[in-house]
Amino acid sequence: MLKKLLDFSMLTEDKDQLRYIDWNNLHFALEWIYEGKPAQRSCRSYHSFPGLSAWLINKGSIKVVGETYSVEAEAGDWVFPPAKKDERIFSNDLEILSLRFEASWSADHELFKEANPLTCSSKDFPRLERLARSLLKTAGPHLTHHRSEMKFQSIDIYKYTKTHRGFMDWIEVYLRTMQKIGAQFHRVKITDERVHVAKTYIDTIDLNTRFREKILADKVGISVAQLNRIFVKDMGITPTAYYSERKYRKAKQMLINSPAPIKQIGYELGFNNPSNFTNWFYSKSKHSPKAFRQQAMQ
């Protein structure tokens, strides 16, 4: 029988430490990096899109306005906008070094979930800029020229691994920088091995199949009621809700990253009726898949 593990925080004085197997649940991926003028003078984000951003202002200024904040930054500053609904106002002469990337746990949990934009001076964190520019050079014009379409460009495995290695070097400094300016890691900390088994199963099953808690409970060797109790204790949500969040995140990624028709995306996620997919997505985002995709493309 699978046994409950000790809370790892009891085993170490470093509150940020987790088991190696737990850190393996983190996912990092570079979506784009480019330098130059943004495509728009301003933009309004109506959704919490998957992913995080980092902007180094080379020239001009940026203002990020939300319901409870208004943050301005100028040349020489890094800006880390929150993954939430807000408005970004760019000066006419704005030029930036822009990175868009994923740094997240499974399901819909970003590594950082800051309520407000964070900023810092590049002079205070010179390695962050130095490694960003090194990554920009490694990616090269073939990729960076395409900006937000960079992820769709064809390259060989050696170019990918070299670029990804440069990205991970930047990520390490980015994580240290974020901690120093007050950001908090969002950590998924599993203390019960049965939850780890259940989570691994949910993370690997096809999203076009119907999820049944009874099947999962049988695999773990406990009742559905007990499964829900221990899963909620460690993960904060039920296994069914966790599966639904995983599907929702995948739906958002496909709507943003794939040119496939919405009907096809719904089918690949297990919705045989397009209206069922639309209604389900609307219940999650308060917008239709079409409206979400249109906003993401702006």
Q: Top keywords for this entry?
A:
Arc Repressor Mutant, subunit A, Jelly Rolls, 5-stranded antiparallel sheet, 298 residues, 11 helices, 2 domains
Detailed description of the structure:
This protein is of the alpha+beta class. It folds into 2 domains: 26-180, Sandwich (Jelly Rolls), CATH 2.60.120; 193-296, Homeodomain-like (Arc Repressor Mutant, subunit A), CATH 1.10.10. The protein is built from 11 helices and 9 strands. The protein has helices spanning 20-23, 126-139, 141-144, 157-180, 193-204, 213-220, 224-235, 239-257, 262-268, 274-285, 289-296; strands at 27-36, 42-45, 52-59, 61-65, 70-74, 77-80, 86-90, 95-104, 118-121. Strands 1-8-3-6-9 form a 5-stranded antiparallel beta sheet, with helices on one face. Helix 2 packs antiparallel against helix 4, helix 5 (193-204) packs parallel to helix 8 and helix 9 (262-268) packs across helix 10 (274-285). The longest helix is centred in the middle third of the chain and has 24 residues, at 157-180. The termini are far apart. Residues 1-14 have low confidence and may be disordered.
Break the fold down into its secondary structure elements and pairings.
Blueprint: H1 20-23, E1 27-36, E2 42-45, E3 52-59, E4 61-65, E5 70-74, E6 77-80, E7 86-90, E8 95-104, E9 118-121, H2 126-139, H3 141-144, H4 157-180, H5 193-204, H6 213-220, H7 224-235, H8 239-257, H9 262-268, H10 274-285, H11 289-296
Antiparallel strand pairs: 1-8, 2-7, 3-6, 3-8, 4-5, 4-7, 6-9
Helix pairs in contact: 2-4, 5-6, 5-8, 9-10
